[in-house]
Fold this protein.
Amino acid sequence: MRLLLLACLRAQTGNATTADRIQSHLHAAGHICVLKDVFRYESPTEIANLTSADKFDAALAIHLYKGGRLLQGSRIPFGIIFGGTDINEDIKCEEKRRIMGEVLGEARFAVAFTMKMKELAAAEWPDTRKKIYVQTQGIKTTPSETFDWCRFLQNADIPTDRDNLHVFLLICGLRRVKDPLYLVDVFSDWHRKDPSVHLGIIGPAVDPLFTNEVKEKVKRAPGIHLLQEMPQDDLHAAMQRCFAVVNSSISEGMSAAILEAMDLDIPVLARNIPGNAAIIKHKDTGLLFSDPQEFVVLSKSLMNDPIMEREIVKRAKDYVKKHHSWECERKAYQTLVLKLQ
């Protein structure tokens, strides 16, 4: 089949990473899968013209609103993959909710990353429950073997002459829903008392206005570093060398960065929100914090208890292997796409 896959394709965002994986799964089954960025199109008419001109047999869209709205009234069959902010945030807006309900009604199937996400969608649109499948994200990490950690630290203005350096990495696209400034004040205060701790915020400037806000704040915050986005394999290598990976989002579908950290044997500290609590069991496979002060308390306990750290990391790795198999995800999408024939 010749398939169109619509997604937000900004480099290094979660949706772009998911789109790449799904494309790879479908190519492996012998389909042609063409990725298109939702931000290049404004209306379903444009997509209808594209599917007609390029002779697409079927389509997929990641994000029920951003991608799905472009397939409304589509002449070709399509499936939807929930993004996270569609079900967690966009559903609160009446007009978006109406459009998403219509799109879901037309879709042959929908994929939710968690049972919780399926339940939220099914509660809003009960008639669609049977067409929503739960498929967790499959994870495969590929750390670069030529990555230069010392140069990475130098570029970030992090001193390399300390033996007991503790670098925390917050990996996210710079937009408000990711709330990268949530920990900045408290972390900076902690850094003043303990100069061995540093927080690196790394990811693409998704929202330019908000990115300027982040830059201004970080300039005035010792111990906080805003880093350039980097290729996936370099990012995985940087994660491997850091002390812990941090997530401070207001809302998440399913954070690939958290799962990748688990796969790379790195502890995770994440804000206690439903999307994060769905993949982290507190003090078992990671640490969940409810406010910035608790983040510091938990970070210190992790730094002072290497046995707890080792046990968390081991259980997290086992969890990812068991529940986020890349091979299982591949089989699931290769089977689901047959519903579009």
User: Anything to note?
Assistant: The radius of gyration is 21 Å. The CA atoms of residues 63 and 82 lie 5 Å apart. The chain has a mean pLDDT of 94.
